[in-house]
Amino acid sequence: MSTYTALPENLPAPEDDGAAAHLPGLELPIIALPATDGRMIDLSGLSGLAVVYAYPRTGVPGQPLPTGWDEIPGARGCTPQSCAFRDHFADLRAAGAEHVFGLSLQETPYQQEVAERLHLPFPLLSDHRHELARAIRLPTFTVEGALLLKRITLIIEDGAISHVFYPVFPPDRNAADVLAHLHAKRGQE
After folding, report:
1. Which domain holds residue 157?
2. What is the SS3 assignment for the chain?
3. In 3D, which of 57, 62, 94 has the Cα closest to residue 78?
């Protein structure tokens, strides 16, 4: 039986294909993205530290996943990843993250369903026009004709990417890895 909140065993791990090597140090362009809380968010204009985890797509309980989804390295695990960021939200904020966002290419109404269902304490951002993905060349892949983001987490400080987690695996450990990075960073200051 498949569940959206837990990862199946033996998922293939993604390999670092170098598609994110250009991102650390990159200043973000001015692009406003719709958020599930009704705001328009321009990541380049945020002050302080932001954590943005990008994921391929969220599934809807009762609807099938794309054919072969579990065999695509790094594809499975959007819900467990989001739940981990939800569960670590207060700790991330305490460690200095002023903003936390999820990001996908899905449209906002679709994202609102998952944000409500999972009780996320932070908004999800929609790049459904692929503006940010194209502008900063985020890693992508295509499944059943749909362009999707590869799983990647960006640490953004005052509008520039300071650190990248890529590839992200397993996705349910990503929030804890980000938290450990933030604690280590604070220890160096």
Report:
1. 32-61+68-188
2. CCCCCCCCCCCCCCCCCCCCCCCCCCECCCCEEEECCCCEEEHHHCCCEEEEEECCCCCCCCCCCCCCHHHCCCCCCHHHHHHHHHHCHHHHHHCCEEEEEEEECCCHHHHHHHHHHCCCCCCEEECCCCHHHHHHCCCEEEECCEEEECCEEEEEECCEEEEEECCCCCHHHHHHHHHHHHHHHHHHC
3. 57
183 within a domain of the structure (yes/no)? yes
β-pair partners for 34:
40
State the CATH number of the domain containing residue 56.
Answer: 3.40.30.10
Sign (positive or negative) of CA dihedral 117, 118, 123, 124: negative
Given the structure tokens 């987490």, which residue do they identify?
A: 153
Is residue 54 in a domain? Answer: yes
Q: pLDDT by residue (tens digit) across 3-33?
A: 556 777 888 999 999 999 999 999 999 999 9
Please choose, from the candidates 29, 25, 48, 14, the residue with its C-alpha nearest in 3D space to the C-alpha of residue 164.
25
Structure tokens, 29: 């362009």
pLDDT at 123 over 60: yes
